[in-house]
């Protein structure tokens, strides 16, 4: 599978795409700048997973909103529940974003209403995560790795992409990033020491995104983490280049895949 590139000048970590970059950083140094480039001239944006999104990505979204775009969100967590995580200079703006409460697959999102749907490091959690019922965690979590579910419904990705297709206007774009590696239900441990899992995509499961019905693939890019020294990133050609590694209880993903899909 070869990468499809846009001819327009969008985000690139380095000329030629094969230089090492992002030293000491997680995949967030790739996802946010890449997605921001695609949001130029997009006026109605729906973000999936807004409430607990990476703060750098949150700042990007709120910056796009401040420049005049209409920003809405869909989430299983109400931002008010996690308001203390937002920096003082972002809190008021974050809490002002209208949020549709519910699972991205079934939430009552207006149809054919958005120029862009952004789903940055979120789709891999859908089907594993549920809203927490205790005060110490926004999500339902397990105390031991052995308690965590090891599978999710194989239709999750297909159903999520179908929901994105319904939400987008024709010509609108879905911007998606996922962890990629050996594949499977990779366990993660949160900041409180609790466990859950996320889907680590591989060549087979990636096709559910890249070949989603109702969409045309505009761009796909793949990056692998090199663990030497403080760690860094380098662009790869395809999922096979990431198949030797996994984010099994690592601090962050060891591979990341990006897709821009146009709604037909």
Can you describe what's shown?
The chain is an alpha/beta fold and 264 residues long. It has one domain (15-263): 3-Layer(aba) Sandwich (Rossmann fold), CATH 3.40.50.150. It contains 5 helices and 10 strands; from the N terminus they run H-E-H-E-H-E-E-H-E-E-E-H-E-E-E. It is globular. The relative contact order is 0.18. The model is unreliable at 1-9 (pLDDT under 50).
Q: By helix and strand content, what is the structural category?
A: alpha/beta
The backbone outline, from C-alpha atoms, is globular
What is the CATH C level class, in words?
A: Alpha Beta
Helix and strand run: HEHEHEEHEEEHEEE
How large is the count of helical segments?
5
Helix content: 10-25%
Q: Distance between the terminal alpha carbons, to the nearest Å?
A: 22 Å
Strand arrangement within the widest β-sheet reads 3-2-1-4-5-10-8-9
CA gyration radius, whole angstroms: 17 Å
Flag low-confidence runs: 1-9
**CATH H level, superfamily name:** Vaccinia Virus protein VP39
Please indicate the count of domains: 1
The tally of beta strands, per DSSP, is: 10
Overall mean confidence score, pLDDT = 92
| Percentage beta strand | 25-35%
Largest sheet: 8 strands, mixed
Question: Brief overview, please?
Answer:
With 264 residues, the protein is an alpha/beta fold. It has one domain (15-263): Vaccinia Virus protein VP39 (Rossmann fold, 3-Layer(aba) Sandwich). The chain contains five helices and ten strands, in the order H-E-H-E-H-E-E-H-E-E-E-H-E-E-E.
């Amino acid at each position: 599978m070869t990468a499809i590139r846009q001819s327009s000048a969008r985000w690139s970590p380095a000329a030629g795409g094969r230089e090492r970059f992002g030293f000491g950083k997680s995949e967030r140094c790739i996802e946010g700048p890449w997605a921001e480039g695609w949001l130029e001239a997009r006026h109605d944006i729906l973000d999936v997973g807004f409430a607990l999104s990476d703060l750098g990505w949150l700042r990007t979204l709120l910056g796009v909103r401040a420049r005049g775009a209409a920003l809405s969100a869909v989430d299983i967590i109400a931002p008010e529940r996690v308001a203390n995580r937002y920096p003082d200079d972002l809190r008021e703006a974050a809490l002002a974003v209208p949020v549709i409460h519910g699972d991205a697959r079934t939430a009552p999102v207006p149809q054919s209403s958005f120029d862009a749907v952004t789903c940055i490091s979120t789709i891999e959690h859908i089907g594993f995560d549920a809203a927490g019922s205790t005060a110490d965690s926004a999500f339902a979590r397990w105390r031991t790795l052995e308690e965590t579910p090891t599978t999710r419904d194989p239709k999750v990705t297909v159903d999520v992409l179908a929901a994105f297709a319904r939400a987008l206007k024709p010509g609108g774009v879905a911007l998606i990033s996922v962890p990629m590696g050996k594949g499977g239900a990779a366990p993660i441990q949160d900041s409180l020491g609790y466990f859950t899992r996320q889907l680590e995509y591989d060549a087979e499961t990636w096709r559910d995104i890249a070949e989603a019905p109702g969409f045309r693939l505009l761009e796909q890019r793949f990056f692998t983490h090199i663990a030497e020294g403080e760690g860094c990133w380098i662009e790869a050609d395809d999922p096979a280049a990431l198949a030797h590694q996994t984010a099994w209880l690592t601090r962050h993903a060891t591979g990341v895949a990006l897709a821009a899909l146009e709604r037909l």
